[in-house]
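During the reporting period the student researcher (J.K.) took over the structure-prediction task from the postdoctoral fellow and processed the backlog of single-chain submissions. One of the processed entries is reproduced below for the supervisory committee.
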Amino acid sequence: MFADREFDGIEIRDVIDRHELHYIIGKRRNAEVDFENIENVKEHSVADVAVESAELTSKDGRTHELSIMYIPSDSDNEKYVLFTTNADVSPDRAIGLTQQYRQRWEIENEYKTIKKHFLPTSASSDYRVRLLYFVIGVMMYNVWRLTNFVLRDEVDVNLGKKPPLRAGEIVELIGFCLFDPGD
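J.K. obtained the following structure tokens:
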């Protein structure tokens, strides 16, 4: 189970542990020991990843063993991101787990794009209507992504990192193809 930093709390970990699930939760840097451990990892001559064991106690007195993973940031080599897990992990496995966590963000961003650009608003409380709109939005998103991949593959010019065809443009093209402008 992957969760955002907003879920970085003992109460959440307590519920997850009682259900015997494994988690990876982004950790806030809020303790002096976090900054000290980051500095120790930076100063290490070989390793750039560290895993430290810790133990938390819930309000009910239950203890929770966890591992804190210190991973270099993809965007800034001087910064580190912190994750916690209730699984026993080695530094090598920590890298793989955090890569899976980062892939989760791709899904989150894709959903935000679908919601913002392709999902029509509906006041209907009928789940069938809402599901239909969502499926149509996902299909339009997929058409947009496929069109941009094909466009990048067919053109010999560097089109940059952003999609050459914007989401709003594909919505207009689909609308133009589906509906006769003379109606």
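The committee noted the following: Helices lie at 10-18, 32-43, 91-118, 127-154, 167-178.
J.K. will present the remaining backlog at the next meeting.
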